[in-house]
Amino acid sequence: MRMSQLFFRTYREAPSEAESDAYKLVVRAGLARQIASGIFTFMPLGWRVMRRIEEIIRQEMEAIGGQEVHMPVLQPAELWQESGRYDAIASELFRLKDRNKRDFVLAMTHEEAVTEMARGIVNSYRQLPFMVFQIQTKERDEPRPRGGLMRLREFTMKDAYSFHDTNEDLDRYYPLVVQAYLNIFKRCGLNVVAADADPGMMGGNDSHEFIQVSEVGEDQVVTCPGCGYAANLEAAVGKLMVLPQEEPKPMEAVATPDIKSITDLAEFFKMGPERFLKTMVFSGQNGLVAAAIRGDLEVNLAKLARVSGQGDLQLADEDTLIKAGLVQGFVSPVGLKNITIIADTSVTESFNFVAGGNKVDTHIKNVVAGRDFRVHHTGDIAEVAEGQSCAACGQPLRIDRGIELGHTFKLGLKYSATMGATFQDKDGASRPIVMGCYGIGLDRLLQSVVDGNHDASGIIWPAEVAPYEVALVSLNPDDQVSAAAEKLYNDLKEDGFDALYDDRAESAGVKLKDADLIGLPVRIVVSPKTLKEGQVEIKPRNGEFYRVALAEAIQSVSGLLKN
């Protein structure tokens, strides 16, 4: 492609709303343009990168038996009502009516559509297992679109779905997808962490997020340098301090005037924060939820939602507490009524906590879960902290920010049982199909490649995803330089290389800056100075330049790209 004909524009300055370096480079290099909040147009250079990413994904999905399909974005609401997600998902789901007043949705994901497809075709165990995948547009009424291509309202996803006759067969297949994902990200020039994750609204059992460690990431990943354990913060577990075992003692009210915080209480009672029972109240879909946890720990909302079975939990404000007869700063599970009480496992494994007294300036000593207050549900609702011991090997855990690039789920029977996707097993019995689900966001993957591969001058594209392989630049061209550059451009094409030829009537400074900004893997410069000596200048984007004979230029480029 000749740059004189390429529909593009580069920018020396980034838009004011761009925060991350990667987003700035996406805009400055002319890859994509925002037309509304969370909605982007991909320009020719950016779309070529997307197509290359697509091809990598197709190759890896087909290598593990995937078959590509194409499902509609516009779907009848009845499918989502069958699965239960039409009402379960709040405002993120785009809902609309057609001219006949029928309800439809714009799909943010395709579990309902693929389950409908499977139930219309599969009737026997002989048709299982199989996996289908698609690369398709998704729509999500995202409340906070931000970060450029990171959090969008319209985006492109690769979603794949596998169908099995048993959980054991899903367990056999699932690691193949995990490895395929690791292959995809490696080919895109990224090193990612496969982290245990919370299934969230997707449902199901086992789940993994594929996270690129990055300071601009919205997620947090917990890792252990000792044994390799990895999990996102919503699912991570750590080893807790073990409290000495004591005999339960009788409860005792203690006056604590103007003392509310765990720090002040610890000073007042002369004991560590782990001996206190912290109770936090949340508003949920089905009423109030009280989370009881040790004072040295923090509540993880995702874990609390999973244990309580209530989504969209919000910390209750003071007015809500007052209406419930509770006093802010002195809340206790003791004596609570009409409130679901969730106890962290740290609470039920120890005795004699200090808890709030449910009245001003009062706390209660020697509170015992189960004896002094009813526990409706018990589970791990604690958030892992930096430096906490790994539950597997005891080494200190670390927490890094990261970008979620992909997510895999063992859905199990969540959709098939609800929507009637069944098959006849070997014994003739009807059973729901066991399902797996696997997604990758292509838009954020593109920007993440930029995030992980750039310097102060611009992008440094890995060869497999670069929009072109070679930047051919003619500087201060006279007739001889133009003729040599034209021949080299045609020779590159004939030898199968994708070359972007800067034949524009621009200064040497503009051309070289644009070449670095766009960041193709290899740059060839033809100039009167080099050509006078029968040479061209070759520079890997992330290396030093050197000169070779004009006749050896293509051979040199080939060697660089193979490495």
Structure commentary:
With 563 residues, the chain is α+β, with helices and mostly antiparallel strands. It has 3 domains: 21-236 and 399-450, Bira Bifunctional Protein, Domain 2 (BirA Bifunctional Protein, domain 2, 2-Layer Sandwich); 252-379, YbaK/aminoacyl-tRNA synthetase-associated domain (YbaK protein); 468-562, Rossmann fold, CATH 3.40.50.800. It contains 16 helices and 33 strands. The strands form 8 sheets. Strands 3, 7, 8, 9, 10, 11, 12, 23 and 26 form a 9-stranded mixed beta sheet that branches. Strands 14, 15, 16, 17, 18, 19, 20 and 21 form an 8-stranded mixed beta sheet that branches. Strands 30-29-31-32-33 form a 5-stranded mixed beta sheet, with helices on both faces. It starts with 20 loop residues before the first helix and ends with a helix.
Lay out the secondary structure.
Elements: H1 21-28, E1 32-36, E2 39-42, H2 44-63, E3 66-68, E4 74-76, H3 77-83, H4 85-88, E5 94-97, E6 103-106, H5 111-121, E7 130-139, E8 154-164, H6 167-187, E9 193-196, E10 207-213, E11 219-223, E12 230-232, E13 238-239, E14 252-255, H7 262-269, E15 276-284, E16 287-294, H8 301-308, E17 314-315, H9 318-323, E18 340-344, H10 345-348, E19 353-356, E20 362-367, E21 377-379, E22 389-390, E23 398-412, H11 416-419, E24 422-424, E25 430-432, E26 434-441, H12 442-452, E27 454-455, E28 458-459, E29 470-474, H13 479-494, E30 499-502, H14 508-518, E31 522-526, H15 528-532, E32 535-540, E33 546-549, H16 553-562
